[in-house]
Amino acid sequence: MFKKVLVANRGEIALRVIRACRELGIATVAVYSEADRESLHVRFADDDVCIGPAPARDSYLKISQIIAAAEITGADAIHPGYGFLAENAEFAEIVRASNIAFIGPTPAQIRAMGDKAEARRLAAEAEVPIIPGTPGPVADIEEALPAAQRLGYPVIIKAAAGGGGKGMRVANDEDEFARHFALARGEALAAFGSDAVYLEKYLEKPRHVEIQILGDEHGHVVHLCERDCSVQRRHQKLIEEAPSPAMTPELRAAMGAAAVKLASRIGYVGAGTMEFLLNGDRSFYFMEMNTRIQVEHPVTEMTTGWDLVKEQIRIAAGEPLTVPAQGFQLRGHAIECRVNAEDASRNFQPSPGTITVFHPPGGPGVRLDTHIYAGYTVPPYYDSLIAKLIVHGNCRAEALARMHQALDGFIIEGITTTIPFLSRVIQHPAFQAGDVDTRFLERERHLLGEAEA
Ligand code: MV4
After folding, report:
1. pTM higher than the cut 0.90
2. For 79-113, what is each residue's pLDDT tens digit?
3. Is 346 one of the catalytic residues?
4. Which residue ranges form the domains of the chain, and what is each CATH number?
5. CA pseudo-torsion sign 376, 380, 381, 384
Protein backbone atom coordinates (compact mmCIF):
# COMPACT_ATOMS: atom_id res chain seq x y z
CA MET A 1 0.00 0.00 0.00
CA PHE A 2 1.04 3.60 -0.53
CA LYS A 3 2.87 5.41 2.26
CA LYS A 4 2.00 8.97 1.31
CA VAL A 5 -0.64 10.36 -1.04
CA LEU A 6 -0.52 13.88 -2.47
CA VAL A 7 -3.99 15.33 -3.00
CA ALA A 8 -3.92 17.50 -6.13
CA ASN A 9 -7.10 19.38 -5.30
CA ARG A 10 -8.81 21.72 -2.84
CA GLY A 11 -12.12 22.15 -1.05
CA GLU A 12 -14.41 19.38 0.10
CA ILE A 13 -12.96 16.69 -2.18
CA ALA A 14 -9.46 17.27 -0.81
CA LEU A 15 -10.84 16.65 2.69
CA ARG A 16 -12.73 13.60 1.47
CA VAL A 17 -9.55 12.06 0.05
CA ILE A 18 -7.51 12.92 3.15
CA ARG A 19 -10.11 11.16 5.34
CA ALA A 20 -9.97 8.04 3.17
CA CYS A 21 -6.16 8.00 3.38
CA ARG A 22 -6.31 8.35 7.19
CA GLU A 23 -8.56 5.32 7.42
CA LEU A 24 -6.11 3.34 5.33
CA GLY A 25 -3.15 4.47 7.46
CA ILE A 26 -1.65 6.53 4.63
CA ALA A 27 0.03 9.91 5.22
CA THR A 28 -1.18 12.87 3.14
CA VAL A 29 0.22 15.94 1.42
CA ALA A 30 -1.96 18.97 0.67
CA VAL A 31 -1.07 21.37 -2.11
CA TYR A 32 -2.59 24.83 -2.01
CA SER A 33 -2.65 28.16 -3.78
CA GLU A 34 -1.89 31.46 -2.08
CA ALA A 35 -5.68 31.99 -1.80
CA ASP A 36 -6.12 28.72 0.12
CA ARG A 37 -3.65 29.17 2.99
CA GLU A 38 -6.48 29.09 5.55
CA SER A 39 -8.17 26.06 3.99
CA LEU A 40 -9.01 23.00 6.05
CA HIS A 41 -7.33 20.63 3.60
CA VAL A 42 -4.02 22.31 4.45
CA ARG A 43 -4.65 21.87 8.17
CA PHE A 44 -5.88 18.27 7.88
CA ALA A 45 -2.97 16.96 5.81
CA ASP A 46 0.28 15.73 7.33
CA ASP A 47 2.37 17.85 4.93
CA ASP A 48 1.53 20.86 2.82
CA VAL A 49 3.14 22.70 -0.06
CA CYS A 50 2.16 26.06 -1.57
CA ILE A 51 2.17 25.58 -5.34
CA GLY A 52 1.54 29.11 -6.58
CA PRO A 53 -0.73 32.13 -6.91
CA ALA A 54 -4.52 32.05 -6.64
CA PRO A 55 -5.53 31.51 -10.29
CA ALA A 56 -5.91 27.77 -10.91
CA ARG A 57 -3.73 27.89 -14.03
CA ASP A 58 -0.86 29.11 -11.81
CA SER A 59 -1.43 26.55 -9.04
CA TYR A 60 -3.90 23.64 -9.15
CA LEU A 61 -3.35 23.21 -12.90
CA LYS A 62 0.42 23.62 -12.75
CA ILE A 63 1.68 20.10 -13.43
CA SER A 64 5.38 20.85 -12.81
CA GLN A 65 4.63 22.38 -9.41
CA ILE A 66 2.50 19.44 -8.33
CA ILE A 67 5.12 16.89 -9.39
CA ALA A 68 7.80 18.92 -7.58
CA ALA A 69 5.62 18.98 -4.43
CA ALA A 70 5.24 15.19 -4.59
CA GLU A 71 8.98 14.71 -5.03
CA ILE A 72 9.94 17.08 -2.22
CA THR A 73 7.54 15.44 0.24
CA GLY A 74 8.21 11.86 -0.87
CA ALA A 75 4.63 11.10 -1.93
CA ASP A 76 4.32 7.78 -3.76
CA ALA A 77 0.85 8.45 -5.23
CA ILE A 78 -1.31 11.37 -6.39
CA HIS A 79 -5.09 11.58 -6.09
CA PRO A 80 -6.47 14.20 -8.51
CA GLY A 81 -10.00 14.48 -7.06
CA TYR A 82 -12.47 15.89 -9.64
CA GLY A 83 -12.07 18.88 -11.94
CA PHE A 84 -8.63 20.50 -12.34
CA LEU A 85 -6.26 17.76 -13.65
CA ALA A 86 -8.47 14.73 -12.92
CA GLU A 87 -9.17 13.96 -16.58
CA ASN A 88 -5.94 15.27 -18.06
CA ALA A 89 -4.24 12.31 -19.76
CA GLU A 90 -0.94 14.16 -20.05
CA PHE A 91 -0.92 14.75 -16.29
CA ALA A 92 -1.54 11.05 -15.61
CA GLU A 93 1.31 10.25 -17.99
CA ILE A 94 3.76 12.65 -16.33
CA VAL A 95 2.82 11.37 -12.86
CA ARG A 96 3.59 7.80 -13.95
CA ALA A 97 6.81 8.83 -15.72
CA SER A 98 7.89 10.41 -12.43
CA ASN A 99 7.51 7.03 -10.71
CA ILE A 100 4.47 8.14 -8.80
CA ALA A 101 1.19 6.19 -8.91
CA PHE A 102 -1.79 8.03 -10.43
CA ILE A 103 -4.95 7.17 -8.49
CA GLY A 104 -7.18 6.81 -11.51
CA PRO A 105 -7.34 5.04 -14.87
CA THR A 106 -4.55 4.79 -17.44
CA PRO A 107 -3.68 7.78 -19.65
CA ALA A 108 -4.99 5.84 -22.68
CA GLN A 109 -8.37 5.29 -20.97
CA ILE A 110 -8.64 8.96 -19.99
CA ARG A 111 -7.76 9.98 -23.55
CA ALA A 112 -10.17 7.55 -25.23
CA MET A 113 -13.13 8.61 -23.09
CA GLY A 114 -12.20 12.29 -23.28
CA ASP A 115 -12.86 12.12 -27.02
CA LYS A 116 -16.66 11.91 -27.06
CA ALA A 117 -16.86 10.64 -30.64
CA GLU A 118 -14.31 7.92 -29.81
CA ALA A 119 -16.22 6.98 -26.63
CA ARG A 120 -19.37 6.67 -28.73
CA ARG A 121 -17.56 4.46 -31.22
CA LEU A 122 -16.23 2.22 -28.42
CA ALA A 123 -19.73 1.95 -26.93
CA ALA A 124 -21.17 0.92 -30.28
CA GLU A 125 -18.41 -1.68 -30.66
CA ALA A 126 -19.31 -3.08 -27.23
CA GLU A 127 -22.97 -3.22 -28.37
CA VAL A 128 -23.98 -0.65 -25.79
CA PRO A 129 -26.93 1.36 -27.10
CA ILE A 130 -25.93 4.78 -28.42
CA ILE A 131 -28.22 7.58 -29.57
CA PRO A 132 -28.91 7.28 -33.29
CA GLY A 133 -26.41 9.51 -35.05
CA THR A 134 -23.36 9.69 -37.28
CA PRO A 135 -20.75 6.98 -36.69
CA GLY A 136 -18.04 9.62 -36.26
CA PRO A 137 -17.31 13.29 -36.94
CA VAL A 138 -18.85 14.79 -40.09
CA ALA A 139 -16.43 16.62 -42.38
CA ASP A 140 -18.55 19.44 -43.78
CA ILE A 141 -22.08 20.70 -44.40
CA GLU A 142 -22.35 18.61 -47.59
CA GLU A 143 -21.90 15.48 -45.53
CA ALA A 144 -23.79 16.77 -42.47
CA LEU A 145 -27.02 17.96 -44.07
CA PRO A 146 -28.10 14.62 -45.59
CA ALA A 147 -27.09 12.90 -42.34
CA ALA A 148 -29.31 15.29 -40.37
CA GLN A 149 -32.18 14.66 -42.75
CA ARG A 150 -31.80 10.90 -42.36
CA LEU A 151 -31.89 11.23 -38.55
CA GLY A 152 -34.90 13.53 -38.66
CA TYR A 153 -35.17 16.84 -36.82
CA PRO A 154 -34.54 17.90 -34.15
CA VAL A 155 -30.87 16.90 -34.24
CA ILE A 156 -28.07 17.87 -31.88
CA ILE A 157 -24.59 18.86 -33.03
CA LYS A 158 -21.91 17.90 -30.52
CA ALA A 159 -18.20 18.68 -30.32
CA ALA A 160 -16.10 15.51 -30.47
CA ALA A 161 -13.65 16.99 -27.99
CA GLY A 162 -16.43 18.45 -25.86
CA GLY A 163 -18.49 16.98 -23.10
CA GLY A 164 -20.42 18.36 -20.18
CA GLY A 165 -22.66 20.26 -22.55
CA LYS A 166 -20.04 22.56 -24.07
CA GLY A 167 -20.17 23.07 -27.82
CA MET A 168 -23.67 21.57 -28.26
CA ARG A 169 -26.35 23.01 -30.56
CA VAL A 170 -29.85 21.81 -31.32
CA ALA A 171 -31.32 22.31 -34.81
CA ASN A 172 -35.07 21.99 -35.37
CA ASP A 173 -35.07 22.20 -39.16
CA GLU A 174 -32.86 22.43 -42.23
CA ASP A 175 -32.46 26.22 -42.06
CA GLU A 176 -31.41 26.14 -38.44
CA PHE A 177 -29.12 23.25 -39.16
CA ALA A 178 -26.91 25.08 -41.66
CA ARG A 179 -26.51 27.99 -39.24
CA HIS A 180 -26.00 25.92 -36.11
CA PHE A 181 -23.57 23.57 -37.81
CA ALA A 182 -21.24 26.47 -38.64
CA LEU A 183 -21.68 27.98 -35.17
CA ALA A 184 -21.06 24.66 -33.42
CA ARG A 185 -17.85 24.09 -35.36
CA GLY A 186 -16.60 27.57 -34.58
CA GLU A 187 -17.41 27.15 -30.90
CA ALA A 188 -15.78 23.72 -30.79
CA LEU A 189 -12.61 25.09 -32.37
CA ALA A 190 -12.47 28.03 -29.97
CA ALA A 191 -13.22 25.93 -26.88
CA PHE A 192 -11.36 22.68 -27.59
CA GLY A 193 -8.94 23.46 -30.39
CA SER A 194 -10.72 21.02 -32.70
CA ASP A 195 -13.72 21.69 -34.95
CA ALA A 196 -14.69 18.00 -35.17
CA VAL A 197 -18.43 17.62 -34.55
CA TYR A 198 -20.87 14.71 -34.85
CA LEU A 199 -24.64 14.50 -35.02
CA GLU A 200 -27.27 12.75 -32.93
CA LYS A 201 -31.03 12.63 -32.89
CA TYR A 202 -32.11 15.11 -30.18
CA LEU A 203 -34.04 13.56 -27.29
CA GLU A 204 -36.58 16.06 -25.98
CA LYS A 205 -37.14 15.13 -22.34
CA PRO A 206 -34.57 12.58 -21.18
CA ARG A 207 -33.51 11.88 -17.62
CA HIS A 208 -29.82 11.81 -16.83
CA VAL A 209 -29.06 8.48 -15.21
CA GLU A 210 -25.49 7.31 -14.64
CA ILE A 211 -23.94 4.04 -13.51
CA GLN A 212 -21.03 3.96 -11.05
CA ILE A 213 -18.42 1.40 -11.92
CA LEU A 214 -15.16 0.16 -10.41
CA GLY A 215 -12.51 -1.86 -12.21
CA ASP A 216 -9.30 -3.34 -10.86
CA GLU A 217 -5.99 -4.44 -12.41
CA HIS A 218 -7.07 -8.08 -12.15
CA GLY A 219 -9.79 -7.79 -14.77
CA HIS A 220 -12.76 -7.40 -12.41
CA VAL A 221 -15.39 -4.78 -13.15
CA VAL A 222 -18.44 -4.19 -10.97
CA HIS A 223 -21.19 -1.60 -11.02
CA LEU A 224 -22.71 0.01 -7.96
CA CYS A 225 -26.05 0.87 -9.54
CA GLU A 226 -27.24 4.25 -10.68
CA ARG A 227 -27.53 7.87 -9.72
CA ASP A 228 -30.23 10.12 -11.13
CA CYS A 229 -28.88 13.59 -11.89
CA SER A 230 -31.79 15.05 -13.81
CA VAL A 231 -31.96 18.32 -11.86
CA GLN A 232 -29.38 20.44 -13.62
CA ARG A 233 -28.90 24.03 -14.61
CA ARG A 234 -26.71 24.83 -17.60
CA HIS A 235 -25.10 21.38 -17.35
CA GLN A 236 -24.32 21.87 -13.68
CA LYS A 237 -25.89 19.19 -11.55
CA LEU A 238 -27.68 20.57 -8.53
CA ILE A 239 -29.42 17.57 -6.97
CA GLU A 240 -28.58 13.88 -7.37
CA GLU A 241 -30.19 10.80 -5.90
CA ALA A 242 -29.93 7.05 -5.75
CA PRO A 243 -31.74 4.94 -6.68
CA SER A 244 -33.35 6.70 -9.63
CA PRO A 245 -37.12 7.21 -9.20
CA ALA A 246 -37.44 6.10 -12.83
CA MET A 247 -35.60 2.79 -12.34
CA THR A 248 -36.95 -0.75 -12.40
CA PRO A 249 -34.93 -3.83 -11.45
CA GLU A 250 -34.91 -4.93 -15.11
CA LEU A 251 -33.74 -1.56 -16.37
CA ARG A 252 -31.05 -1.41 -13.67
CA ALA A 253 -29.78 -4.83 -14.67
CA ALA A 254 -29.68 -3.86 -18.35
CA MET A 255 -28.01 -0.50 -17.81
CA GLY A 256 -25.57 -1.97 -15.28
CA ALA A 257 -24.64 -4.77 -17.66
CA ALA A 258 -24.09 -2.27 -20.49
CA ALA A 259 -21.79 -0.16 -18.31
CA VAL A 260 -19.81 -3.20 -17.16
CA LYS A 261 -19.51 -4.44 -20.73
CA LEU A 262 -18.03 -1.18 -21.99
CA ALA A 263 -15.68 -0.81 -19.01
CA SER A 264 -14.51 -4.43 -19.30
CA ARG A 265 -13.86 -4.02 -22.98
CA ILE A 266 -11.34 -1.25 -22.35
CA GLY A 267 -9.92 -3.01 -19.26
CA TYR A 268 -10.96 -0.05 -17.17
CA VAL A 269 -9.05 0.46 -13.93
CA GLY A 270 -10.40 2.73 -11.20
CA ALA A 271 -13.68 4.47 -10.45
CA GLY A 272 -15.69 5.67 -13.42
CA THR A 273 -19.17 6.70 -14.41
CA MET A 274 -21.14 5.86 -17.52
CA GLU A 275 -23.68 8.56 -18.28
CA PHE A 276 -26.90 7.53 -19.97
CA LEU A 277 -29.92 9.38 -21.23
CA LEU A 278 -33.13 7.62 -20.24
CA ASN A 279 -36.30 8.18 -22.23
CA GLY A 280 -39.85 8.00 -20.90
CA ASP A 281 -40.33 4.73 -22.78
CA ARG A 282 -37.41 3.26 -20.77
CA SER A 283 -35.06 3.16 -23.74
CA PHE A 284 -31.58 4.27 -22.65
CA TYR A 285 -28.51 5.41 -24.51
CA PHE A 286 -24.85 5.77 -23.59
CA MET A 287 -23.84 9.43 -23.59
CA GLU A 288 -20.32 9.69 -22.20
CA MET A 289 -17.97 8.28 -19.58
CA ASN A 290 -16.30 10.20 -16.78
CA THR A 291 -12.96 8.76 -15.75
CA ARG A 292 -12.84 10.25 -12.24
CA ILE A 293 -14.51 10.21 -8.86
CA GLN A 294 -17.56 12.43 -9.21
CA VAL A 295 -18.98 15.17 -7.01
CA GLU A 296 -22.11 13.07 -6.42
CA HIS A 297 -20.33 9.85 -5.39
CA PRO A 298 -21.67 10.06 -1.80
CA VAL A 299 -25.21 9.07 -2.81
CA THR A 300 -23.78 5.78 -4.08
CA GLU A 301 -21.75 5.36 -0.90
CA MET A 302 -24.85 5.92 1.23
CA THR A 303 -26.97 3.38 -0.66
CA THR A 304 -24.31 0.69 -1.16
CA GLY A 305 -22.20 1.11 1.97
CA TRP A 306 -18.97 1.08 -0.06
CA ASP A 307 -16.32 3.77 0.32
CA LEU A 308 -15.51 4.69 -3.27
CA VAL A 309 -12.44 6.76 -2.49
CA LYS A 310 -10.85 3.98 -0.43
CA GLU A 311 -11.62 1.61 -3.32
CA GLN A 312 -9.89 3.99 -5.74
CA ILE A 313 -6.77 3.99 -3.58
CA ARG A 314 -6.73 0.21 -3.14
CA ILE A 315 -7.20 -0.31 -6.88
CA ALA A 316 -4.31 2.05 -7.72
CA ALA A 317 -2.12 0.11 -5.28
CA GLY A 318 -2.84 -3.04 -7.33
CA GLU A 319 -5.20 -4.64 -4.83
CA PRO A 320 -8.23 -6.58 -6.05
CA LEU A 321 -11.68 -5.05 -5.63
CA THR A 322 -13.26 -5.69 -2.27
CA VAL A 323 -16.74 -4.97 -3.66
CA PRO A 324 -18.37 -8.26 -4.60
CA ALA A 325 -19.81 -8.44 -8.12
CA GLN A 326 -23.29 -9.30 -6.93
CA GLY A 327 -23.10 -9.50 -3.18
CA PHE A 328 -24.27 -6.09 -2.06
CA GLN A 329 -27.74 -4.81 -1.37
CA LEU A 330 -29.05 -1.38 -2.16
CA ARG A 331 -30.18 0.11 1.11
CA GLY A 332 -32.79 2.84 1.22
CA HIS A 333 -32.58 6.14 -0.63
CA ALA A 334 -30.00 8.94 -0.70
CA ILE A 335 -30.25 12.51 -2.01
CA GLU A 336 -27.48 15.07 -2.42
CA CYS A 337 -27.92 18.83 -2.71
CA ARG A 338 -24.98 20.87 -3.92
CA VAL A 339 -24.75 24.07 -1.92
CA ASN A 340 -23.09 26.90 -3.82
CA ALA A 341 -21.97 30.36 -2.77
CA GLU A 342 -24.25 31.89 -5.39
CA ASP A 343 -27.35 34.05 -5.61
CA ALA A 344 -30.06 32.05 -7.40
CA SER A 345 -32.19 35.17 -7.85
CA ARG A 346 -29.34 36.93 -9.68
CA ASN A 347 -28.67 34.31 -12.32
CA PHE A 348 -26.57 32.27 -9.86
CA GLN A 349 -23.97 35.00 -9.64
CA PRO A 350 -21.09 33.90 -7.37
CA SER A 351 -21.15 35.27 -3.83
CA PRO A 352 -17.69 34.90 -2.36
CA GLY A 353 -16.84 36.39 1.03
CA THR A 354 -16.40 35.63 4.70
CA ILE A 355 -18.73 33.24 6.49
CA THR A 356 -19.79 34.83 9.75
CA VAL A 357 -22.18 32.18 11.07
CA PHE A 358 -22.05 28.47 10.29
CA HIS A 359 -24.52 26.03 11.76
CA PRO A 360 -24.48 22.66 9.98
CA PRO A 361 -27.52 20.40 9.97
CA GLY A 362 -27.47 17.04 11.72
CA GLY A 363 -29.60 14.16 12.87
CA PRO A 364 -30.09 10.60 11.60
CA GLY A 365 -29.00 9.97 8.04
CA VAL A 366 -27.40 13.39 7.48
CA ARG A 367 -23.92 13.72 5.98
CA LEU A 368 -22.21 17.00 5.19
CA ASP A 369 -19.10 17.03 2.99
CA THR A 370 -17.66 20.52 3.27
CA HIS A 371 -14.52 22.52 3.83
CA ILE A 372 -16.18 25.65 5.18
CA TYR A 373 -16.33 26.91 8.76
CA ALA A 374 -17.26 30.10 10.62
CA GLY A 375 -14.61 32.68 9.78
CA TYR A 376 -13.65 31.01 6.48
CA THR A 377 -13.47 33.26 3.44
CA VAL A 378 -14.80 31.74 0.21
CA PRO A 379 -12.29 32.89 -2.43
CA PRO A 380 -13.57 34.22 -5.77
CA TYR A 381 -11.15 32.17 -7.88
CA TYR A 382 -12.68 28.70 -7.95
CA ASP A 383 -15.90 26.76 -8.35
CA SER A 384 -18.51 28.06 -5.92
CA LEU A 385 -19.41 24.66 -4.42
CA ILE A 386 -19.11 25.10 -0.65
CA ALA A 387 -20.88 22.03 0.70
CA LYS A 388 -22.61 18.82 -0.30
CA LEU A 389 -25.54 17.93 1.89
CA ILE A 390 -26.35 14.25 1.63
CA VAL A 391 -29.23 12.53 3.39
CA HIS A 392 -30.17 8.89 3.62
CA GLY A 393 -33.49 7.35 4.56
CA ASN A 394 -35.17 3.97 4.40
CA CYS A 395 -37.31 5.19 1.51
CA ARG A 396 -37.43 8.22 -0.79
CA ALA A 397 -40.13 9.93 1.30
CA GLU A 398 -37.97 9.68 4.42
CA ALA A 399 -34.92 10.98 2.55
CA LEU A 400 -36.97 13.90 1.19
CA ALA A 401 -38.26 14.80 4.66
CA ARG A 402 -34.73 14.66 6.03
CA MET A 403 -33.41 16.83 3.21
CA HIS A 404 -36.15 19.38 3.78
CA GLN A 405 -35.38 19.58 7.48
CA ALA A 406 -31.62 19.61 6.92
CA LEU A 407 -31.77 22.44 4.36
CA ASP A 408 -34.05 24.54 6.55
CA GLY A 409 -31.80 24.01 9.55
CA PHE A 410 -28.58 24.75 7.66
CA ILE A 411 -27.46 28.26 8.55
CA ILE A 412 -24.72 30.07 6.69
CA GLU A 413 -24.43 33.83 7.11
CA GLY A 414 -22.11 36.39 5.57
CA ILE A 415 -22.49 35.10 2.00
CA THR A 416 -25.48 34.23 -0.19
CA THR A 417 -26.00 30.51 -0.78
CA THR A 418 -28.34 28.39 -2.87
CA ILE A 419 -29.85 26.73 0.23
CA PRO A 420 -33.27 28.50 -0.02
CA PHE A 421 -33.44 27.68 -3.75
CA LEU A 422 -32.62 24.00 -3.11
CA SER A 423 -35.33 23.90 -0.44
CA ARG A 424 -37.89 25.18 -2.96
CA VAL A 425 -36.79 22.64 -5.56
CA ILE A 426 -37.07 19.63 -3.27
CA GLN A 427 -40.55 20.78 -2.18
CA HIS A 428 -41.78 21.13 -5.78
CA PRO A 429 -44.56 18.60 -6.49
CA ALA A 430 -42.75 17.31 -9.59
CA PHE A 431 -39.55 16.67 -7.65
CA GLN A 432 -41.50 15.14 -4.77
CA ALA A 433 -43.12 12.79 -7.29
CA GLY A 434 -39.73 11.97 -8.85
CA ASP A 435 -41.11 13.30 -12.12
CA VAL A 436 -38.29 15.49 -13.45
CA ASP A 437 -36.17 15.58 -16.57
CA THR A 438 -33.12 17.52 -17.66
CA ARG A 439 -35.23 20.59 -18.60
CA PHE A 440 -37.17 20.79 -15.33
CA LEU A 441 -35.48 24.00 -14.08
CA GLU A 442 -35.80 25.72 -17.47
CA ARG A 443 -39.58 25.35 -17.15
CA GLU A 444 -39.82 26.21 -13.45
CA ARG A 445 -38.28 29.67 -13.52
CA HIS A 446 -40.24 30.84 -10.47
CA LEU A 447 -38.09 28.56 -8.29
CA LEU A 448 -35.21 30.98 -8.80
CA GLY A 449 -36.82 33.47 -6.39
CA GLU A 450 -37.00 37.25 -6.50
CA ALA A 451 -33.91 39.42 -6.53
CA GLU A 452 -33.95 41.75 -3.52
CA ALA A 453 -34.44 45.43 -4.32
C1 MV4 B 1 -28.22 15.13 -25.58
C2 MV4 B 1 -29.51 15.58 -25.22
C3 MV4 B 1 -30.57 15.19 -26.00
N4 MV4 B 1 -30.36 14.42 -27.08
N5 MV4 B 1 -28.09 14.38 -26.66
C6 MV4 B 1 -25.82 17.48 -22.18
C7 MV4 B 1 -24.46 17.24 -21.68
C8 MV4 B 1 -23.79 16.38 -22.66
N9 MV4 B 1 -23.11 15.33 -21.98
C10 MV4 B 1 -24.87 15.85 -23.53
N11 MV4 B 1 -26.09 16.51 -23.17
C12 MV4 B 1 -27.24 16.25 -23.79
N13 MV4 B 1 -27.15 15.45 -24.88
C14 MV4 B 1 -29.14 14.05 -27.38
N15 MV4 B 1 -28.96 13.30 -28.46
C16 MV4 B 1 -29.64 16.38 -24.09
C17 MV4 B 1 -28.51 16.74 -23.39
C18 MV4 B 1 -28.75 17.61 -22.28
C19 MV4 B 1 -28.61 17.17 -20.97
C20 MV4 B 1 -28.18 15.90 -20.67
C21 MV4 B 1 -28.05 15.48 -19.37
C22 MV4 B 1 -28.36 16.35 -18.36
C23 MV4 B 1 -28.76 17.63 -18.61
C24 MV4 B 1 -28.90 18.05 -19.91
C25 MV4 B 1 -29.35 19.33 -20.17
C26 MV4 B 1 -29.47 19.75 -21.47
C27 MV4 B 1 -29.17 18.88 -22.51
Report:
1. yes
2. 999 999 999 999 999 999 999 999 999 999 999 99
3. no
4. 4-103 (3.40.50.20), 132-201 (3.30.1490.20), 207-452 (3.30.470.20)
5. positive
